[in-house]
Design brief:
Elements (H helix, E strand, L loop, with lengths): L2 H6 L18 E3 L9 E6 L3 E8 L6 H20 L3 E8 L36 E2 L6 H10 L11 H8 L2 H6 L9 E7 L25 H7 E2 L2 E2 L5 E2 L2 E2 L9 H12 L3 E7 L7 E3 L5 E3 L12 H10 L3 E3 L6 H15 L1 E3 L12 E6 L5 E4 L9 E4 L1 H4 L5 E4 L10 E6 L4
Parallel strand pairs: 3-4, 3-6, 6-11, 11-14
Antiparallel strand pairs: 1-2, 2-20, 4-5, 7-10, 8-9, 12-13, 15-19, 16-17, 16-20, 18-19
Length: 414
Protein backbone atom coordinates (compact mmCIF):
# COMPACT_ATOMS: atom_id res chain seq x y z
CA UNK A 1 0.00 0.00 0.00
CA UNK A 2 1.53 3.37 -1.00
CA UNK A 3 1.89 6.34 1.36
CA UNK A 4 -1.08 8.25 -0.01
CA UNK A 5 -3.36 5.23 0.25
CA UNK A 6 -2.15 4.48 3.79
CA UNK A 7 -2.89 8.04 4.89
CA UNK A 8 -6.25 8.17 3.15
CA UNK A 9 -7.85 4.73 3.42
CA UNK A 10 -8.99 5.27 7.02
CA UNK A 11 -11.60 7.81 5.91
CA UNK A 12 -13.09 5.72 3.12
CA UNK A 13 -16.15 4.35 4.85
CA UNK A 14 -19.47 5.70 6.07
CA UNK A 15 -23.09 6.47 5.26
CA UNK A 16 -24.76 8.79 2.76
CA UNK A 17 -25.71 12.37 3.56
CA UNK A 18 -29.02 12.74 5.36
CA UNK A 19 -31.28 15.29 3.60
CA UNK A 20 -33.33 17.81 5.54
CA UNK A 21 -36.93 18.69 4.78
CA UNK A 22 -37.52 21.88 2.82
CA UNK A 23 -40.07 24.45 3.93
CA UNK A 24 -42.63 26.34 1.82
CA UNK A 25 -41.09 28.71 -0.73
CA UNK A 26 -42.62 31.44 -2.90
CA UNK A 27 -44.17 33.35 -0.04
CA UNK A 28 -45.25 32.85 3.52
CA UNK A 29 -48.09 30.41 4.23
CA UNK A 30 -51.25 32.42 4.88
CA UNK A 31 -52.37 31.61 8.42
CA UNK A 32 -55.68 33.37 7.77
CA UNK A 33 -56.52 31.56 4.57
CA UNK A 34 -58.88 28.62 4.60
CA UNK A 35 -56.92 25.41 4.38
CA UNK A 36 -58.51 22.00 4.33
CA UNK A 37 -57.33 18.53 3.38
CA UNK A 38 -57.43 19.60 -0.29
CA UNK A 39 -56.21 23.23 -0.13
CA UNK A 40 -52.88 24.92 0.46
CA UNK A 41 -52.52 28.70 0.42
CA UNK A 42 -49.76 31.31 0.60
CA UNK A 43 -49.29 35.05 0.24
CA UNK A 44 -47.13 36.01 -2.73
CA UNK A 45 -44.04 37.99 -1.76
CA UNK A 46 -42.36 40.64 -3.89
CA UNK A 47 -39.37 40.12 -6.15
CA UNK A 48 -36.65 40.66 -3.61
CA UNK A 49 -33.26 38.97 -3.67
CA UNK A 50 -30.46 39.30 -1.12
CA UNK A 51 -27.25 38.20 -2.84
CA UNK A 52 -24.40 37.02 -0.62
CA UNK A 53 -21.09 36.37 -2.37
CA UNK A 54 -18.67 34.20 -0.36
CA UNK A 55 -15.26 34.70 -1.96
CA UNK A 56 -12.16 32.61 -1.36
CA UNK A 57 -9.31 35.03 -0.60
CA UNK A 58 -6.58 32.46 0.00
CA UNK A 59 -3.32 32.14 -1.92
CA UNK A 60 -3.67 31.54 -5.68
CA UNK A 61 -7.20 32.96 -6.09
CA UNK A 62 -6.39 36.18 -7.95
CA UNK A 63 -7.02 34.80 -11.44
CA UNK A 64 -10.29 33.11 -10.43
CA UNK A 65 -11.50 36.27 -8.70
CA UNK A 66 -10.76 38.31 -11.81
CA UNK A 67 -12.66 35.94 -14.12
CA UNK A 68 -15.62 35.79 -11.77
CA UNK A 69 -15.68 39.58 -11.41
CA UNK A 70 -15.68 40.02 -15.19
CA UNK A 71 -18.75 37.78 -15.49
CA UNK A 72 -20.63 39.06 -12.44
CA UNK A 73 -22.48 41.89 -14.25
CA UNK A 74 -24.32 39.17 -16.23
CA UNK A 75 -25.94 37.94 -13.02
CA UNK A 76 -26.99 41.46 -12.07
CA UNK A 77 -28.33 42.07 -15.59
CA UNK A 78 -30.62 39.03 -15.29
CA UNK A 79 -32.03 40.34 -12.00
CA UNK A 80 -32.40 43.88 -13.36
CA UNK A 81 -34.22 42.69 -16.49
CA UNK A 82 -36.88 41.10 -14.28
CA UNK A 83 -37.34 44.24 -12.18
CA UNK A 84 -35.88 42.57 -9.08
CA UNK A 85 -35.29 44.54 -5.90
CA UNK A 86 -31.83 43.17 -5.12
CA UNK A 87 -29.18 43.83 -2.54
CA UNK A 88 -25.70 42.36 -2.44
CA UNK A 89 -22.76 41.97 -0.11
CA UNK A 90 -19.42 40.17 -0.09
CA UNK A 91 -17.68 38.18 2.64
CA UNK A 92 -14.48 36.16 2.44
CA UNK A 93 -13.73 32.57 3.45
CA UNK A 94 -11.11 33.75 5.97
CA UNK A 95 -12.38 33.20 9.51
CA UNK A 96 -8.94 32.47 10.88
CA UNK A 97 -7.90 29.51 13.03
CA UNK A 98 -8.75 30.76 16.49
CA UNK A 99 -5.76 30.78 18.88
CA UNK A 100 -3.56 28.64 16.64
CA UNK A 101 -0.59 30.11 14.79
CA UNK A 102 0.45 28.34 11.59
CA UNK A 103 3.50 30.41 10.67
CA UNK A 104 6.28 28.01 9.66
CA UNK A 105 4.29 24.94 10.68
CA UNK A 106 2.99 23.63 7.38
CA UNK A 107 1.16 24.52 4.23
CA UNK A 108 -1.59 26.78 5.59
CA UNK A 109 -0.64 30.32 4.59
CA UNK A 110 -2.28 33.43 6.02
CA UNK A 111 -3.45 31.85 9.29
CA UNK A 112 -2.30 33.94 12.24
CA UNK A 113 -3.03 33.22 15.87
CA UNK A 114 -5.84 35.36 17.19
CA UNK A 115 -6.19 37.18 13.89
CA UNK A 116 -9.72 35.94 13.30
CA UNK A 117 -9.61 36.77 9.60
CA UNK A 118 -12.51 38.84 8.27
CA UNK A 119 -15.04 37.10 10.57
CA UNK A 120 -17.76 37.09 7.88
CA UNK A 121 -18.10 40.87 7.99
CA UNK A 122 -19.38 42.39 4.76
CA UNK A 123 -16.54 44.02 2.84
CA UNK A 124 -16.56 47.56 1.49
CA UNK A 125 -18.39 50.79 2.20
CA UNK A 126 -21.32 50.82 1.96
CA UNK A 127 -21.41 47.22 3.14
CA UNK A 128 -24.66 46.52 1.28
CA UNK A 129 -24.93 47.44 -2.39
CA UNK A 130 -28.24 48.12 -4.12
CA UNK A 131 -29.77 50.45 -6.68
CA UNK A 132 -28.93 53.98 -5.60
CA UNK A 133 -26.26 52.99 -3.08
CA UNK A 134 -23.47 53.89 -5.55
CA UNK A 135 -23.38 55.10 -9.14
CA UNK A 136 -22.92 51.65 -10.71
CA UNK A 137 -23.62 48.94 -8.11
CA UNK A 138 -22.88 46.06 -10.52
CA UNK A 139 -19.44 47.46 -11.34
CA UNK A 140 -18.74 48.14 -7.67
CA UNK A 141 -19.74 44.60 -6.75
CA UNK A 142 -17.40 43.18 -9.38
CA UNK A 143 -14.57 45.45 -8.21
CA UNK A 144 -14.94 44.22 -4.64
CA UNK A 145 -14.59 40.61 -5.80
CA UNK A 146 -11.53 41.50 -7.86
CA UNK A 147 -9.95 43.22 -4.86
CA UNK A 148 -10.67 40.48 -2.32
CA UNK A 149 -7.00 39.52 -2.50
CA UNK A 150 -5.22 36.28 -1.76
CA UNK A 151 -3.75 36.84 1.69
CA UNK A 152 -6.50 34.97 3.55
CA UNK A 153 -6.15 31.83 5.63
CA UNK A 154 -5.57 28.61 3.70
CA UNK A 155 -8.18 26.83 5.82
CA UNK A 156 -11.11 28.18 3.81
CA UNK A 157 -14.39 28.26 5.76
CA UNK A 158 -17.10 29.30 3.28
CA UNK A 159 -19.94 27.45 5.02
CA UNK A 160 -19.14 28.98 8.41
CA UNK A 161 -18.81 32.38 6.71
CA UNK A 162 -22.23 32.10 5.06
CA UNK A 163 -24.02 31.01 8.23
CA UNK A 164 -22.35 33.70 10.30
CA UNK A 165 -22.93 36.44 7.70
CA UNK A 166 -26.71 35.91 7.69
CA UNK A 167 -27.06 35.56 11.46
CA UNK A 168 -29.41 38.20 12.94
CA UNK A 169 -26.61 39.72 15.03
CA UNK A 170 -24.08 40.12 12.23
CA UNK A 171 -26.55 40.97 9.49
CA UNK A 172 -27.82 43.84 11.60
CA UNK A 173 -24.30 45.06 12.31
CA UNK A 174 -23.54 45.12 8.60
CA UNK A 175 -26.49 47.31 7.68
CA UNK A 176 -29.13 44.67 7.09
CA UNK A 177 -28.29 42.60 4.00
CA UNK A 178 -30.83 39.92 4.88
CA UNK A 179 -34.50 40.87 4.64
CA UNK A 180 -37.13 38.54 6.07
CA UNK A 181 -39.27 38.52 2.91
CA UNK A 182 -36.43 38.28 0.38
CA UNK A 183 -34.86 35.23 -1.24
CA UNK A 184 -31.32 34.72 0.05
CA UNK A 185 -29.07 33.64 -2.82
CA UNK A 186 -25.61 32.53 -1.63
CA UNK A 187 -22.86 32.20 -4.24
CA UNK A 188 -19.59 30.48 -3.30
CA UNK A 189 -16.42 31.20 -5.29
CA UNK A 190 -13.49 28.98 -4.30
CA UNK A 191 -10.81 26.72 -5.75
CA UNK A 192 -10.86 24.36 -2.73
CA UNK A 193 -13.46 22.59 -0.64
CA UNK A 194 -14.93 23.79 2.63
CA UNK A 195 -12.94 23.48 5.86
CA UNK A 196 -15.49 24.71 8.41
CA UNK A 197 -14.95 23.20 11.85
CA UNK A 198 -14.63 23.88 15.56
CA UNK A 199 -11.49 25.80 16.52
CA UNK A 200 -9.75 22.73 17.96
CA UNK A 201 -9.63 21.25 14.47
CA UNK A 202 -7.03 23.85 13.43
CA UNK A 203 -4.42 22.89 16.01
CA UNK A 204 -1.10 22.38 14.14
CA UNK A 205 0.27 20.23 16.96
CA UNK A 206 -2.28 17.39 16.84
CA UNK A 207 -1.26 14.87 14.14
CA UNK A 208 -4.42 12.89 14.79
CA UNK A 209 -6.38 15.60 12.97
CA UNK A 210 -4.46 15.02 9.75
CA UNK A 211 -1.48 16.62 8.03
CA UNK A 212 -0.57 20.26 8.85
CA UNK A 213 -2.09 21.43 5.56
CA UNK A 214 -5.56 22.00 4.19
CA UNK A 215 -5.61 18.30 3.24
CA UNK A 216 -6.87 17.66 6.77
CA UNK A 217 -10.16 19.29 5.66
CA UNK A 218 -10.58 16.53 3.07
CA UNK A 219 -9.22 13.95 5.51
CA UNK A 220 -11.81 14.89 8.13
CA UNK A 221 -14.78 16.00 6.03
CA UNK A 222 -15.07 13.58 3.10
CA UNK A 223 -15.57 9.83 2.89
CA UNK A 224 -14.95 7.70 -0.21
CA UNK A 225 -15.72 4.09 -1.05
CA UNK A 226 -12.56 2.85 -2.75
CA UNK A 227 -9.70 3.71 -5.07
CA UNK A 228 -10.33 2.88 -8.72
CA UNK A 229 -7.91 1.18 -11.07
CA UNK A 230 -6.87 4.57 -12.47
CA UNK A 231 -6.04 5.94 -9.01
CA UNK A 232 -9.15 8.09 -8.69
CA UNK A 233 -11.23 7.71 -5.53
CA UNK A 234 -14.83 6.60 -6.06
CA UNK A 235 -18.07 7.33 -4.24
CA UNK A 236 -16.71 10.39 -2.43
CA UNK A 237 -19.28 12.29 -0.38
CA UNK A 238 -19.52 14.90 2.35
CA UNK A 239 -19.29 13.30 5.77
CA UNK A 240 -17.83 14.53 9.05
CA UNK A 241 -15.40 11.68 9.61
CA UNK A 242 -13.68 13.87 12.20
CA UNK A 243 -16.34 15.04 14.71
CA UNK A 244 -14.88 18.55 14.89
CA UNK A 245 -15.68 19.14 11.20
CA UNK A 246 -18.94 21.00 10.61
CA UNK A 247 -21.68 18.54 9.62
CA UNK A 248 -23.55 19.45 6.44
CA UNK A 249 -27.02 18.86 7.96
CA UNK A 250 -26.11 21.32 10.73
CA UNK A 251 -25.21 23.97 8.14
CA UNK A 252 -28.49 23.42 6.30
CA UNK A 253 -30.45 23.55 9.54
CA UNK A 254 -28.80 26.84 10.50
CA UNK A 255 -29.70 28.41 7.15
CA UNK A 256 -33.25 27.06 7.39
CA UNK A 257 -33.63 28.49 10.88
CA UNK A 258 -32.66 31.92 9.57
CA UNK A 259 -34.48 31.92 6.21
CA UNK A 260 -36.88 28.96 6.14
CA UNK A 261 -36.97 27.84 2.52
CA UNK A 262 -36.27 31.31 1.10
CA UNK A 263 -32.65 30.38 0.45
CA UNK A 264 -30.66 28.96 -2.42
CA UNK A 265 -26.94 28.38 -2.83
CA UNK A 266 -24.76 28.16 -5.93
CA UNK A 267 -21.12 27.25 -6.41
CA UNK A 268 -18.39 28.28 -8.81
CA UNK A 269 -15.55 25.89 -8.03
CA UNK A 270 -13.61 22.87 -9.22
CA UNK A 271 -15.00 19.85 -11.03
CA UNK A 272 -16.31 17.12 -8.69
CA UNK A 273 -14.33 14.40 -10.43
CA UNK A 274 -11.84 12.91 -10.70
CA UNK A 275 -10.85 12.85 -7.03
CA UNK A 276 -7.14 12.08 -6.80
CA UNK A 277 -4.63 12.38 -3.97
CA UNK A 278 -0.98 13.13 -4.57
CA UNK A 279 2.01 14.40 -2.61
CA UNK A 280 2.75 18.14 -2.30
CA UNK A 281 6.16 19.85 -2.34
CA UNK A 282 6.43 19.50 1.46
CA UNK A 283 5.86 15.75 1.32
CA UNK A 284 2.27 15.86 2.59
CA UNK A 285 -0.74 14.36 0.82
CA UNK A 286 -2.90 16.76 -1.18
CA UNK A 287 -6.02 16.66 -3.29
CA UNK A 288 -4.87 17.42 -6.82
CA UNK A 289 -6.70 19.72 -9.28
CA UNK A 290 -9.66 18.06 -10.99
CA UNK A 291 -9.27 19.57 -14.45
CA UNK A 292 -6.63 20.93 -16.80
CA UNK A 293 -5.98 24.65 -16.86
CA UNK A 294 -7.07 25.32 -13.26
CA UNK A 295 -5.78 24.67 -9.75
CA UNK A 296 -9.35 24.09 -8.49
CA UNK A 297 -9.95 20.94 -6.42
CA UNK A 298 -13.18 18.93 -6.10
CA UNK A 299 -15.56 20.87 -3.78
CA UNK A 300 -17.41 17.83 -2.44
CA UNK A 301 -18.71 19.38 0.80
CA UNK A 302 -19.85 22.59 -0.86
CA UNK A 303 -21.55 20.67 -3.66
CA UNK A 304 -23.55 18.73 -1.05
CA UNK A 305 -24.98 21.99 0.31
CA UNK A 306 -25.75 23.34 -3.16
CA UNK A 307 -27.45 20.11 -4.18
CA UNK A 308 -29.59 20.10 -1.04
CA UNK A 309 -30.68 23.69 -1.68
CA UNK A 310 -31.19 23.13 -5.39
CA UNK A 311 -28.84 25.81 -6.72
CA UNK A 312 -26.39 25.97 -9.63
CA UNK A 313 -23.02 24.19 -9.73
CA UNK A 314 -20.56 25.75 -12.15
CA UNK A 315 -16.94 24.86 -12.88
CA UNK A 316 -13.86 27.06 -12.75
CA UNK A 317 -12.54 24.71 -15.42
CA UNK A 318 -14.66 26.67 -17.92
CA UNK A 319 -12.84 29.64 -19.45
CA UNK A 320 -16.01 31.75 -19.76
CA UNK A 321 -18.00 32.12 -16.54
CA UNK A 322 -20.69 34.38 -18.01
CA UNK A 323 -23.16 31.54 -18.74
CA UNK A 324 -22.72 30.27 -15.18
CA UNK A 325 -23.49 33.66 -13.65
CA UNK A 326 -26.53 34.09 -15.89
CA UNK A 327 -27.75 30.66 -14.76
CA UNK A 328 -27.37 31.67 -11.12
CA UNK A 329 -29.48 34.76 -11.76
CA UNK A 330 -32.10 32.67 -13.57
CA UNK A 331 -32.17 30.22 -10.64
CA UNK A 332 -33.02 33.06 -8.25
CA UNK A 333 -35.86 34.22 -10.48
CA UNK A 334 -37.28 30.71 -10.73
CA UNK A 335 -37.22 30.43 -6.95
CA UNK A 336 -39.28 33.62 -6.72
CA UNK A 337 -41.89 31.99 -8.96
CA UNK A 338 -42.07 28.73 -7.00
CA UNK A 339 -44.03 27.49 -3.99
CA UNK A 340 -42.89 24.40 -2.10
CA UNK A 341 -45.84 22.15 -1.32
CA UNK A 342 -46.23 21.17 2.30
CA UNK A 343 -47.86 17.84 1.43
CA UNK A 344 -47.13 15.28 -1.29
CA UNK A 345 -49.41 15.06 -4.31
CA UNK A 346 -51.26 11.85 -5.03
CA UNK A 347 -50.06 11.84 -8.65
CA UNK A 348 -46.87 13.71 -9.48
CA UNK A 349 -46.91 12.54 -13.12
CA UNK A 350 -50.19 14.34 -13.81
CA UNK A 351 -50.95 16.66 -10.87
CA UNK A 352 -54.62 17.48 -10.32
CA UNK A 353 -54.73 21.06 -8.97
CA UNK A 354 -56.88 24.13 -9.33
CA UNK A 355 -54.96 27.37 -8.69
CA UNK A 356 -56.63 30.69 -7.91
CA UNK A 357 -55.03 34.08 -7.24
CA UNK A 358 -57.10 36.26 -4.90
CA UNK A 359 -55.91 39.84 -5.26
CA UNK A 360 -56.31 42.64 -2.76
CA UNK A 361 -59.93 43.73 -2.92
CA UNK A 362 -61.16 40.17 -3.41
CA UNK A 363 -60.79 39.75 -7.19
CA UNK A 364 -60.26 36.05 -7.91
CA UNK A 365 -58.38 34.92 -11.03
CA UNK A 366 -57.94 31.31 -12.06
CA UNK A 367 -54.40 30.45 -13.16
CA UNK A 368 -54.43 27.64 -15.75
CA UNK A 369 -52.05 24.74 -15.91
CA UNK A 370 -49.32 25.30 -18.48
CA UNK A 371 -50.20 23.97 -21.92
CA UNK A 372 -48.46 24.13 -25.27
CA UNK A 373 -48.26 27.81 -26.17
CA UNK A 374 -50.19 28.84 -23.05
CA UNK A 375 -48.34 30.03 -19.91
CA UNK A 376 -49.54 28.85 -16.54
CA UNK A 377 -48.43 26.86 -13.52
CA UNK A 378 -46.46 23.63 -13.64
CA UNK A 379 -45.21 21.04 -11.17
CA UNK A 380 -41.50 20.74 -10.38
CA UNK A 381 -40.38 17.45 -8.89
CA UNK A 382 -38.63 17.54 -5.50
CA UNK A 383 -35.08 17.22 -6.83
CA UNK A 384 -35.40 20.27 -9.11
CA UNK A 385 -35.97 22.95 -6.49
CA UNK A 386 -34.98 21.08 -3.33
CA UNK A 387 -38.60 20.99 -2.15
CA UNK A 388 -39.40 17.84 -0.21
CA UNK A 389 -42.82 17.41 -1.85
CA UNK A 390 -42.16 19.25 -5.09
CA UNK A 391 -43.27 22.75 -6.03
CA UNK A 392 -45.87 24.66 -8.00
CA UNK A 393 -43.98 27.00 -10.34
CA UNK A 394 -45.56 29.89 -12.23
CA UNK A 395 -44.51 31.00 -15.70
CA UNK A 396 -43.38 34.61 -15.87
CA UNK A 397 -46.61 35.78 -17.54
CA UNK A 398 -48.87 34.51 -14.74
CA UNK A 399 -46.82 35.18 -11.59
CA UNK A 400 -49.25 36.31 -8.88
CA UNK A 401 -49.01 39.93 -7.78
CA UNK A 402 -47.15 40.71 -4.58
CA UNK A 403 -49.60 40.61 -1.69
CA UNK A 404 -52.09 38.31 -3.44
CA UNK A 405 -53.31 35.17 -1.71
CA UNK A 406 -52.86 32.06 -3.82
CA UNK A 407 -55.01 29.01 -3.13
CA UNK A 408 -54.23 25.58 -4.57
CA UNK A 409 -56.90 22.90 -4.44
CA UNK A 410 -55.09 19.64 -5.17
CA UNK A 411 -55.45 15.91 -4.88
CA UNK A 412 -52.95 15.31 -2.09
CA UNK A 413 -51.69 11.89 -1.09
CA UNK A 414 -52.69 12.19 2.54
Amino acid sequence: MNLVRALFVCICAGCALEPIAALPRGGAPDAGARESGAVEAFVQSGRRVDLLLVVDDSSGMAEEQSRFAAALPRLVAVLDAAGTDWRAGIVTTDLGTGPYDWEGKGGADGCEAGGGGDQALLQGDPAVLSHGSVGDPAAELAARVDLAGEDGCGFERPLDAAVRAVSPELAGADGGLVRDDALLSIVFLTDEDDCSADEEFYSPDNPGLGPPTSFRCFFGGVACDDEGDDGAWLGCRAQSVQPLVRAIPDVLAALAERKGSLVTASLVGGALAPVRVGIDELGFPEVVPSCAGSDARPPIRLAAVVDQLGGVRASLCEADLRPALEAIGADALERLRAYCLRRPLADTASPDCGVVEVREGGQALAIPRRAQGTPGWWFARPVRLACENGAIVFDEEVVPRAGSRVEMTCDFAD
